[in-house]
Amino acid sequence: MSWVDGAAGSLFDLDNLPYGVFSRAEESPRVGVRIGDHVLDLAPVAEIGDPASGLAAAWRTPSLNAFMAMGPDQWAIARRWIDEVLSDDVHEERTAPHLHSLDEVELHLPIEVGDYVDFYASEQHASNVGRIFRPDQAPLLPNWKHLPVGYHGRAGTVVASGTGVIRPCGQRKAPTDDAPSYGPSRRLDIEAELGFVVGMPSTLGERVSTDGFAAHTFGVVGLNDWSARDIQAWEYVPLGPFLGKSFATSISHWVTPLAALDAAWTDLPGQDPEPLDYLAVGDRAGLDIDVEVVLNGVVVSRPPYASMYWSPAQMLAHTTVNGASVRTGDLWGSGTISGAEPDQRGSFLELSWGGQEPFLLDGVERTYLEDGDEVTLRYTARGTSGGRIALGEVSGRVLPAT
Ligand code: CA
User: Fold this and answer.
1) Which residue, 345, 355, 358, is CA-closest to 229?
2) Residue 152: active-site member
3) pLDDT at 275 over 80
4) Which of 38, 91, 108, 125 is catalytic?
5) Rounded CA gap, 169 and 127, in Å?
6) Are residues 201 and 72 in the same domain?
7) Last residue of a domain, one of 57, 86, 108
């Protein structure tokens, strides 16, 4: 039990301990760990306690990358040390001065993003999108159950939770239009996803097996893949999403280390046909994480991550099966999380069925996002102590086109 006020029994107790990057007025951003509604400034405490060589220096930097690059043994040492410092009263006197209320700090993008890849791992989402975008064809394309479909996204426009999202402009052409037009997107949307962050790099030519997932993956973030459906629908054949997605991708301030999710692993819903050997389901398969999509303060959907068809370990194995390497800070999105029920859909495209079936929000019919709308994605999972933990939430407000 932690000596920090309000931590015990909260969603941010000792079984969680997500990392982030914070700053106080006129001080440089640096790495902290969240406990309750506080952030612990790690570097100065590590300098006193000396948990392991190099940790204090890594935590004094303005991103998690130096710490993530140290690898799983150091991640485990750090987590044990933080647990001890925050639970044993003997450490309170010298640690408390480095504990800051979240009200008094600014939170930043936690990682320096390397490459960004986004997958498409929910069978329900892929089927729904197929039905909406290609109503005259089979919902799933022939490759979908043989490999985790993905595309390379734009790392440079990954932004921290709270960053405003400017409505993008671009080419739009509805099937009934004679010619494309240019202007602000009329079908701005979200995609509720999880993001996975690479800690340990792989080398060029190396294939990371599904069992190698935990050796390379540092942790998990909340992720909103903002999507302009009208731009996307016109541009996406044959090379996939481009400008309909690249204007912004939001991630949470907090990165939940994999160790905090030890009790959240579960079986996949089932894969048929059995995937090729390199995609064999490894030690860690599905994740039982509850997601909430909140629009202007109202929960409009509850997608279950446990319904995802492809596992994160399979996504990493697929990313590297051709010998492509991953780097510290690489980020991959799971793809939109959509369950089987209508109120489990992870995008407004699906919740309004292509804009044809508006849903009610406070008695008003809604389809796609309007200027001023604020979307927050929240995530909880079973913690290792038997209660719940919260993963980093991610929010953003839609700003008018410029
Ligand atoms: Ca996506």
Assistant:
1) 355
2) no
3) yes
4) 125
5) 28
6) no
7) 108
